[in-house]
Amino acid sequence: MSNKTILHIEDNEFNRKIVRDLLSRASYRLIEAIDGELGVVMAIQQLPDLILMDLQMPKMSGLEATRQLRANPKTANIPIIAVTSFALSGDDQKALEAGANAYLAKPYSPRELLGLIRKYLPES
Amino acid sequence: MIRNLPSESNLCYQDPGPFPSTLRKLDKMPDKDHGGLEGASWGTVSLTRRPEKGLVAFLRNRAPLRLLILWVAGIRASVHTKLLCAFLLVSLLIVVTGAMSLQAMRTMTHQAQLLDQAQERESRARQIQQSFTQQMNFTALALIIKDEATVQKILRENNRFNRQLAMLEEDIVSKPSVARELIQLIRTHQEEVMTIMADIADHIRDGKFDEARRLQLTKVYPLFEQIEGLVAQVLNAEEKEKERLRQSVTESNRRTLVFMSIIAAVAFLLALVLGFVISWSFILPVREAEIFLGHVAEGRFDRSIQVPNRDEFGALAHRMNLMSKELDRLNKEQRESAQALQRINEKLQAASKAKSEFLANMSHELRTPLNAILGFIELMLDEIYGEVPLYLKEPLSDVQNNGRHLLRLINDVLDVAKIEAGRMELRLEKYLVDDIISSARASLQSLAEQKGLGFVAGAENGIPPAFGDGGRITQCLINIAGNALKFTETGRVEISVGLKDEMLTYKVKDTGIGIPQDKIEKVFDEFHQGDATITRDFGGTGLGLSITKKFVEMHGGRIWVESEQGKGSSFYFSIPLIAGHKGKV
């Protein structure tokens, strides 16, 4: 299993399923977290190669989770792609300020997302 | 001063209380406070004078003058009457001074007369003395010469002596004199002498010279000596009297001078005090009014003015207090209204915020399922789930297109809601016009291809990096160009951008159905399309152009259209190359 690991942090089941289905044909290993708190714990435990972070989540927002991951030396350098709910609301800017490497506005095209993932994490 | 007075009623012109109480109240105040009524205690007033120094302030604030000023101010009479009284009083002082001078002059004249009389009496006494000596000489001569002429001369001198003595006596009788008794004595002796002299004269005429000489030696000489002594005494007395009178005149002159000086000084001082007091009794209320009006001008209507005057100034102060009260009342009313408005405004703001939050939440809630729908359809069409039968491809595409349309509708409605709430803000940053052209081209290329329309998009060469909200400008261009493609069935749509005078002008030219002249002004209104049926036929919310117009205006630009029905339309919008920081609608 030399496949690279992607951690998807997203509270909505269907959005998780889309990514799961999208990546089913690609050679990545996908792990999932259903809120920000769990996401941070899993990221520190499993040290994924890339994180997909939804910004609006219960318990802990994606912005806060991003900040915490960036503050932890173990996870500070893992690429984070933020998924914002609305590109023009200012969330994208906030995501970059919190430490995300890139952002993608909902509703996104799965094809576009795959392109972005491949850009930051080429398939092995 | 104002603050220390508990009641205004007994200080006002209309309702004056007993004046002494006013005076007492005013008097109780510490000097400093009173003195600083234009100064120290009003430190915050902008028109404040510094605490007064100098002689005038010193005099004005010391007990007798201050009380006098307050008393004059409190006299219930008009300013006119007060001034008239003051002038009359000063005039009276002048008249009194004049009368005193006249009296002094009269006294001095009388003294001079007395002196003259004394002088005259002395002169007569000397003449008597001379006449007496002549009488003696002629008697001696008659005894030697023994002729009738000389005898006559004796008698003549004798008469002259008598006359002068009578005149002197008359003077002395009419005026009090120490010499009166002496004169009586002289007259007695003189009468005796005259009798003897008559005998001597008879003896000389009869040739009885020895008898005459005997009489001369034994009777006349002793009498002469006595008379001489008496006359000398009279002279002496008159000289003393004259000296006494002279001294009296000198003394009187000195006294008059001193007295007149005092009268003049007192009159001068009185006039000065009167002027000082009356002028300050008018200046004080004026100063109070100045301070009071200063407060009013600064919007402090809760102050009142207190003056001790019961004249026109008092009436004025009373009016000012009424005015102040009314202003204060109006001010409070206005403030209450403002507070009420403020509360309403806060409620409205809270409501507006709630609405915005609701919309933001709705945005998220609507997008999340839509994201799933669009995502799954794309995965299906990409055959992630396996091959899609041909007959399913079209309906799946329809679902995808409608989903995308729904997304645009949601975005537009949210934009309008934000603009209406005044919460739409531009994110001004550097952008490239070429990027905007590329984005528009990328978004609309497929639609143009689907409809078989010519589609060209390009910008003039050499446009420098611009400053503004690139995302919103892109949205505007896509809105307009999307409309153009939508309403054009054959032909082409061209996008071009030019820079002139620091203004970027975007032009979207189509060969579509055009806009009727009577509708052309309304195309930028919300929910408005050329024809109500167009919405049904062509889709769209009718919000795109209205939102576009708002964004263009927020950039400090303008939007307009040129159109000919059946031939096509040209939409333009121009925005500054460097957009200002207007930020909000």
Describe the structure.
In chain A, strand 4 (80-84), helix 4 (91-98) and strand 5 form a beta-alpha-beta unit. Chain A is an alpha/beta fold and 124 residues long. Chain A has a single domain (4-120), classed as 3-Layer(aba) Sandwich (Rossmann fold). Chain A has five helices and five strands. The mean pLDDT of chain A is 87. In chain A, helix 2 (36-46) packs parallel to helix 3. Chain A has helices spanning 13-24, 36-46, 62-71, 91-98, 110-120, and strands at residues 4-9, 28-33, 50-54, 80-84, 102-105. Chain B has 585 residues and is an alpha+beta fold. Chain B folds into four domains: 9-92 and 268-315, no CATH class; 105-267, Four Helix Bundle (Hemerythrin (Met), subunit A); 334-423; 425-576, Heat Shock Protein 90 (2-Layer Sandwich). Chain B is 68% helix and 8% strand. Chain B is built from 14 helices and seven strands. Chain B has helices spanning 19-28, 31-35, 55-61, 63-74, 79-145, 148-174, 180-206, 209-297, 312-381, 390-420, 433-451, 470-486, 532-538, 544-554, and strands at 429-431, 454-459, 466-468, 492-500, 503-510, 558-564, 568-576. In chain B, the strands form two sheets. In chain B, strands 2-4-5-7-6 form a five-stranded mixed β-sheet, covered by helices on one side. A two-stranded antiparallel ribbon of chain B has the order 1-3. In chain B, strand 6 (558-564) and strand 7 form a beta hairpin. In chain B, helix 4 (63-74) crosses helix 8, helix 7 packs antiparallel against helix 8 and helix 9 (312-381) packs antiparallel against helix 10. Chain B starts with 18 loop residues before the first helix and ends in a 9-residue tail after the last strand. At the A-B interface, helix 1 of A face helix 9 of B.
